[in-house]
Specification:
The protein is an alpha/beta fold and about 200 residues long.
């Protein structure tokens, strides 16, 4: 239960289905999860470019960007990580309700938290995209220099080093980012969206 008690939910007059009909496509959240350096943000943005090119209503929620604003009050301790993901789930749901395809690029290391977000959505609206990349590859890439800092103890609770990452049990999409080039990964996700009739063929 939330802390607020004197509130009432107001249904909107324009429904999600109305927005789907206007847009010419359905809405969903693509929940990119994986280790730091696995390519979540790169793939989410590459996909967003392709969707934008074809007039699809879409947006990217990036972990670092959100922590600059909405979640700037949260640390990387377990309890704050859980709240970080809960808040993003709520934001993603608003985007889906508005008729958009939202790509959420967060490590989201815990199965329980990802399931909590999945439960916010209708069947088929939450698409878990597991960026399956070996730790040593992510560490070799280390685009932000975070693994080096984590290895010497400068960053506590770092996923894959001093904090666990729980691999998805049954994700909708698995991307082998150490084996696939970016264009192949984008195509794989688009094919899924076509197959599920979230998108109509361009």
């Amino acid at each position: 239960m939330g802390k607020s008690t004197h509130i009432t939910w107001h249904d909107t007059l324009v429904t999600k289905v109305d927005r789907h009909l206007l847009n010419g496509h359905k809405s969903c959240v693509l929940w990119f999860t994986g280790l730091s350096g696995s390519g979540k943000s790169s793939l989410a943005n590459a996909l967003d470019v392709e969707l934008f090119r074809h007039g699809i209503k879409s947006y990217v929620l990036d972990g670092d960007n959100i922590r600059h604003g909405l979640n700037s009050d949260l640390s990387f301790k377990v309890e704050d990580r859980k709240e970080n993901i809960r808040r993003i789930g709520e934001v993603a749901k608003l985007f889906v309700d508005s008729g958009q395809i939202v790509s959420s690029a967060f490590i989201s290391p815990f199965i329980e938290d990802r399931q909590l977000v999945r439960n916010m959505f209708n069947e088929g609206e939450f698409i878990e995209v597991f960026m399956n990349c070996p730790l040593h590859v992510c560490e070799d890439r280390d685009p932000k220099g975070l693994y080096k800092k984590a290895r010497i103890g400068e960053i506590p609770d770092f996923t894959g080093i001093s904090s666990p990452y729980e691999v998805p049990i049954n994700p909708e999409i698995v991307i082998e980012t150490d084996k696939m080039i970016l264009d192949e990964s984008v195509y794989m996700i688009l094919s899924y969206l076509y197959d599920k009739e979230i998108l109509q063929r361009f």
